[in-house]
Amino acid sequence: MKKFNLFNEIITADKSSLLQAINTSKVFGININGEIKYEPFDDKEILIYRGKPDIVENFTKVLGKNYQLVEDENRVLIKAFSNWQELIGINTPRASYDDTTADGVAEFSDKNLEDIGWNATEFNIDYRTLVEVLEENCDGTILCIEQEDPYQFSGLGFLDDDKQAKETLFNYCQTKIKDMIDNDPDFKREELTDDEEEAAQFFKIV
Fold first, then answer.
1. Sign of the CA dihedral 63, 64, 68, 69?
2. DSSP for 129-192?
3. What phi and psi values does residue 102 have, to the nearest 5 degrees?
4. Suppose 66 and one of 20, 82, 191, 197 were both cysteines; which one would form an S-S bond, judging by CB atoms 3.0 to 4.6 Å apart?
């Protein structure tokens, strides 16, 4: 997965398309590629703006004070990191997972991924581990704010292909748990609890 760090990124929108969206008086969004999108948004759409502004005379009043804008002849250049808290609410309904709180990732929005995550916890495989597997091996985008000094990170994950992610996570957990049952004295096959046994069956191990 690739990171889209709002601290660093400048989103470029076409000025005429943005004007057209404002004049329609419809709810519209600007995605991370600078494209204008209208409701209903695609399942995996990542937005840096969503709204239904009144017709006004300049783009700063349209987007609001939390955006930094530079206009040239045909483009509007946008920095959106100051509006991060609002963007969490705008994008969370379409995100695959939420890593914006101090508690970290607690669940996956896709049911198949959540079933894997729930069963993996029986063998002490936490969501952070699973997210790291996804971010390393799957296609997608992490919409985030990340800075180094002092270190700060907050992000939303958007997986491009839930089927790919399911296969990746399932295979990882199956291999990991099989090794634990074979080699970890805390998870001896003959001493598994009912819940551990059920999870092992879910991963087609026993």
1. positive
2. HHHHHHHHHS-EEEEEEEETTTTEEEEEEEES-HHHHHHHHHHHHHHHHHHHHHH-GGG-GGG-
3. -65, -25
4. 82
Walk across the sheet containing 28-31 and list its strands: 36-38, 28-31, 47-51
Pairing of strands 2-5, 140-147: parallel
List the pLDDT tens digit at each of the 206 positions of the chain.
Answer: 999 999 999 999 999 999 999 998 899 999 999 999 999 999 999 999 999 988 777 888 889 999 999 999 899 999 999 999 999 999 999 999 999 998 999 999 999 999 999 999 999 999 999 999 999 999 999 999 999 988 999 999 999 999 999 999 999 999 999 999 999 999 999 999 999 999 999 999 96
Q: Using alpha carbons, select from 95, 110, 115, 91 the residue that is nearest to residue 37.
A: 91
Which pair of tokens denotes residue 7?
A: 């601290």
Q: Are 55 and 41 in contact (CB under 8 A)?
A: no
Q: Collapsing DSSP states into helix, strand and coil, what is residue 53? A: coil
